[in-house]
Amino acid sequence: MELISNYKNGNYTVKLYSDGTKIKETEADSFIAEFPDSIDLKITNYCDLNCPMCHEKSNIDGKEGNLDSPFLESLPSGIELAIGGGNPLSHSALLPFLEKMKKREIICNLTVNEKHLIKNKEFVQKLIDEKLIYGLGISAFEVFDETVAFARKNENCVLHIVTGVFENFEKIIDKNLKVLFLGYKKFGKGKNYFSLDILRNIEKTKKLIPRLISRFSRISFDNLALSQLDIKRLLTDSEWDKMYMGDDGEGSMYIDLVEQKFAKSSISTKRFSLKDDIKEMFLILKMK
Q1: Closest by alpha carbon to 190, among 266, 111, 103, 262?
Q2: Looking at residue 19, what is its pLDDT?
Q3: Domains plus CATH for the chain?
Q4: How far from the centroid of its chain's Cα atoms is residue 11's Cα?
Q5: Residues 251-268: what's their mean pLDDT?
Q6: Strand, helix or coil at 134?
Q7: Residue 194 Cα to chain centre, angstroms
Q8: pLDDT at position 153, please?
């Protein structure tokens, strides 16, 4: 593993390695951050897929966000941006933005739908090869053979699957894949799409998880999936304390460059207008 980021944030240190491993260490009883270690950054609301559960309500009329927003100049080197949309590949300024962030030693990751990935494989591969992005999240629903092949070829690709919606586990187990379980978001279009079938699928996945864990090269969960699938029941207290990265807003935040708003997460209803400094915005979240 190559160490790609090493910095101090508040009362703890952060080390980020090339395979995505993040280690946070402190001598205190808790981690107290001055700025987010990672930012969920929405850069566009344009998307042509019309996914029925999209919590961002992205569509073909969606607008691009401003990638020259003043707060971006205040980002400390070493922190991570999880760039998404909408379809982030559609943003007209994506490439120069990634080049600028690389020069400033900001660690960029990108999340794309598998259909958009297949249409833009060469471009995405270029981003990976030139280390303009370190991690690629692939939102997978149907799981095409090309999706699996691309993910197996590039070690820092992670399949993103939505709990309660995704059922094609046979297509992804035992293929040396990394998988991130996302909780089902009853937000945006996801609020009306939610059904008893989705609830049953969440419970079905919850029962399957103990048998699925060993079938992937790495498995991880966002905070919502941790709750919906009750992952804590599968770990000892010491294992949980070692691996849990904290609640939304403790070391992370969400920024919508289209609406010019920020919040603790993408499903937070309490949102605030962007400020020019990331530390000021993060402090606001911690006070609310």
Answers
A1: 266
A2: 86
A3: 3-287 (3.20.20)
A4: 24
A5: 97
A6: coil
A7: 22
A8: 96
Distances (CA, A) of 237 to 50, 85, 266, 269: 41, 36, 28, 31
Distance (Å, rounded) from C-alpha 8 to C-alpha 248?
Answer: 20
Q: Tell whether the model's pLDDT for residue 6 goes beyond 90.
A: yes
For 73-116, the pLDDT digits (tens) are 999 999 999 999 999 999 999 999 999 999 999 999 999 999 99
pLDDT of residue 288: 78
Radius of gyration of the chain (CA): 18
Rounded (to 5) percent helix, strand, coil in the chain: 35, 25, 45
At 270 the three-state DSSP class reads: coil
